[in-house]
Amino acid sequence: MSNDLRSFFLLRPDVVFLNHGSFGACPRPVFEENIRWQRELEGEPVEFFARRLPQLLRDAQGELARFIGCDPLDAVHVTNATIGVNIVARSLRLGHGDEVLATDHEYGACSRTWRFLAGKNGFTYRAAQVPIPVTTHAEFLEGFFAQVTPATRVIFISHITSPTALTIPVRQICEFARERGIVTLIDGAHAPGQIPLNLEALGADFYTGNLHKWLCSPKGSAFLYARRELQPLLEPLVVSWGWEAVAPGSSTFIDHHEMWGTRDLSPALSVPAAIRFQQEHRWESVRARCHELVRDAREALSKEFGFVPVAPDDDAWFAQMSSFLLPAEIDAAALQERLFNEHLVEIPVFPWFNGRSLIRISIQGYNTPADIERLCAGIRAITMRSAG
Known about the structure:
Distance between the termini: 35 Å
């Protein structure tokens, strides 16, 4: 893979960055667009906030809606996917005898949200165990559906899991849930820009996704989607000027969850620039090249070091990220620290369940085979030195 795209990113040239999945990385043209919006704001704040911002947001929302496959009035700008989860979770009327079903692969901040609310309101938050390595989507669905009980009121599940980087068959889960009157909330933090999205076809009741990760938008850009008939269920997380007001061309749903008073919305206004950047650079082919490089990394790490991929070599399970179970003797924290401090390789290595640890590799358009070689050389040097 050519590294022509590397010149567009602001990443340190001395660091091999294999952790795009955590916070993303913003290309220079998109970053400069963000700064341009901030300068416009500061040039005449009253004109910007009071006269221009509502229409600017609607224009940006229209481009985002086309990208994620929904009506512009069914998605609202939020700061990150965790905010989206909080809006939905805090709005649903759940109590004793009710259950929220998730998996043990969910993102920690979101699981904390549900556990906090469960302790406060008396419902149960249950994480169904999904053993790894996984096998097939069919077997996953069979096992997950078997966990649904008469008490299940909500299914909360990631589209692409954060720790294990698994692509979950959420369309089938949404169909299953809809037939049984179960509400679905999909955590799509890793999906926009990594896999194609059509939210209306997906069928989720609620879907929240980050744009600062794989779409490469500025930090602080994300969205919350809600099916039109369920939007009245959602209460504002912050009560501000959007309450009791409907801006022209807007909706109660958008006003309640977007109009939070004075805040920097330049990341939301820069989302169209991120979409254009990827279109101009034929991102579908970039994603395909990244996927092949992930496959190469999987082969290298499993063959030489005995790292166990958590999913088979099946395109249905992974796109631009892949996670591996580490041998029991490897100290996860020490490996991550030494890879960065001694080899300038940025990659997450972390403890997981049952005393096992994971390493997760993320590949974006700026990565090359040389980055994988440097990762392997670093692991080789560290493990050989540790063994010696």
